[in-house]
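Researcher: We're teaching a course module on how sequence relates to structure. For the next exercise, students receive a sequence and then see the predicted structure as tokens, so they can try to spot secondary structure elements on their own. Here is the exercise chain.
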Amino acid sequence: MEQIQRSTKKNTSKEILWYSLLFLITMASIYGYFMVSGTSFIWESDGFTQHYLLFKDYVGMWQEFIQHPSGGFQNWDWTIGLGADVISSYGYYVVGDPFVYLGLLFPQSMMEFAFHFLIVLRIYCIGLAFMFYARKMNVSGAGLLVGTFVYTFSHYVTLNATRHPFFLMPMIFFPLLCLGVEKILRKESALLFAAVVCVSATSNFYFFYKLTVLIFIYAIFRYFELGIPLKKIWKYFWKALSHYLIGVCMSAVVLFPVIWGFLQSSREPGTFASGMTVYPLQYYVNLLANIFISESYLWTVLGFAGIVMLVIPLFFVRRKVFGAIPYMMVLFLVMLLFPAFGSVMNGLSGPYNRWTFVIPLLLGIAVARLYQYRFDWNKKDRLAMFVGWLFFGGIALGQQILSDFSWARTVPVIAAFLVWALLELTARRKEKGKLTNGWEKVVSAVIFLSVIGNVIFNAQEYYYPMGQNKVAALLPYGTANDQYEQVFDEIEKEIPPVSKDDIFRIGLTAKDNHIRNDMVYLERMGMNSYLSITNGSVAQFARQLELGSFQLIQPVRNGMDDRRIANHMLGVRYIVTEVSNEKYLPYGYEVISRSEGENAHLIAETDQSYPFAYANSVVMDNEEFEKLNPVEKEEFLSIGFTAAADEADINQLDPFDSSLSTKEIAHTVRSEDENKLTIENDQVLVQDSDGKLLIELEDVKDIQQSEVYVHLKGMDFEPNPSKTYHRVNTGFNTKVAFNGRTKTIHQSDKQSFSSYIHRKKMLFNLGYQAESESNTITVQFEKPGAYDLEDITIYALPVDEESYNEKVAEKSAHQLDVTTFENESIEGTITQEEDAVLVTSIPYSVGWSAEVNGEEVETIKVNYGFIGIPLKAGTSQVAFSYETPFLKIGFIITLIGIGLFTVEYVRHKKKSGKKGV
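Model: And here is the predicted structure for the students to work with:
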């Protein structure tokens, strides 16, 4: 027995050595062009704005903590949006990823290299994880290597290496979870299963959910395949469940805070499966056409080596060879056909099929077995392979006929035919007694190399200019840090740093769509963030004001849509933007500095921004507030604050009983050109995207010295039907222009599931109008089709400089005198003559606690998105402190989980008489 174990270990080491060598060759063949062309793995979209930036920032936080541990680890960061929890904000990307912590081995000057190195390391570990699992499934030798490369270089990996690197992690975890299940079903230790559950739950809760569902499916199929009596199922189920729970407990220190962040985030589940019972026809066409090419649709990512064409028909004629794989493949095919399954796998939200990383695992094992038995397939088997080749080759040929010729569809077909031809020729030589060892070795090598060559070509076709040219969407290597540094042409360095004596935020204009998480890098207090998990309370505030730039994961994207009062209440003293955007500055912001050159920017300043925290006794309950139009809401926030009526601490305050100055402006609406756009009842029919809707004001004097808004209500869009099987994108832009200002609001496509919201209303801020001569506002819809439009309202908010300055002065007179301002601690003193509420611009979170004069007080939510605390008349010593919700209890449960794991380890060690797992 010991000799067999030593032999197995020796073979495993040899296979890993061969894998490592071939991996380096394959990676060099695929990504060598990146080095020659100086291209990075950083995607110019999310890669630049999220993945690399957050990796660099998070590793920097840990390096700072290691160097200065007495200061504690930073749990709240004022540079993330309006301020946010670090663990919940970054948990989706970096907090639990074990590879991220290897970045601590590199200095900050090498973070970009570390980012790339760790992506390559992840891909390498994907192959290793497959090999360990496949060995358990009795796959070895060259067959093991073939299957490994089919799995490791499937399109799911190629796509996410440069698109979403952390999406690679489930391809490491799932084979190891399967290995853990195999050990349980074979009455071996369940500790590996518990450990992998822990790491995967810590790494990313979103994929952990998918992994949980998938591993349950896998376990059920394997249980019955192994022929274990049904009466014993509860014994195995309990063993798996108990160790699953141990793994979850060990991950709790990260998992619990991240789940809390998700539950209070701005994301919305929406309609189950987005209201679809079936996918659009285009999806099904692409599902069949994309099996062997590097393309995807609705995150159904396939893209395999051509040899898979020969494996699939064998599922029908040699089911016993492949065990449960054919049955699981049938189930997964059914799941791909209906949106309901996609929705379930996506957390009951939009039906994205991001779970398709499981399919390469099954096909990798199947290809490995095809190769292992390459000289044993009978005539019927080979005929089935040929039929499979004809079927998929016919699909590829049909695609070639219907569209331009593509090597991407041709090469997998050629590679598959080469494999089949060699197997057929070898079988005939075997029948004639002419099969030699030399021939077998040559055939084996050619088949092996054809598979590796196929996966290399697939990746090259995806990346290279001769194919889809995805490298064009990647940043040049070594430029990311410079781009962060130069985003404002470094003019922001002229703005003084925030201190306890001078707390403010830096804002943007509505035209600064390209600014995402840049304030994190610049270490400045700003407003916008672009993260998958964003504070849901901030989103509530943005929705109340109907910000035109609002998105689910970017509630205050590119500032506050140039809304003057909204910027002031959030403490935006400075706005930095490109010089060309000067006309979009809110009223009262004066330019104080300009840079020169191609990337010229300016700084504008106001003296009307509100203090960080101030006492206010004028209140309106939320129900009354929601009856106001969005412009009136903003106007009221310059006077008082809003809160829920059931807050007992506000019942004794002064209810708002004054009038607001916002007024509606009389106007008429007509089409500029009836041939391009027509108006019928409550519908606008657009025949040409150049068509314009003209809103003509009856008296232009009504809007002078006022801020002007256009409010479109009751909106919906039905695009003109497609003349092909391709679906029509239901997203569109609406553009409103007046006096040199143009504002655009985007309605996302219904199939942009993660970010889709239906904008029944659109509010366009056209800025301050001094002495306007024009009386015509133009509205332009981007796409031809039918637009429901129930009502158009024009609002004017008069600007009374003297009255407004009095309101600002009153807030300044009642502001909190801040003595401490840190990431997780704010202290100060305030004196007021009557009971009031301290209104702050701290984003609301249950993690913030407050004390007044040494006694803990309960915080309340004011203005829908921020923290307030009740104050009694007199002088108050106020202290705020922050602690990540569920971090402490998560830490305690993690310790309990580690204890339970240790007990199980000792128990197993005693039972088996062996060391280790």
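Model: If you want an answer key for the exercise: Residues 613-660+804-882 form one domain. The chain has 28 helices and 35 strands.
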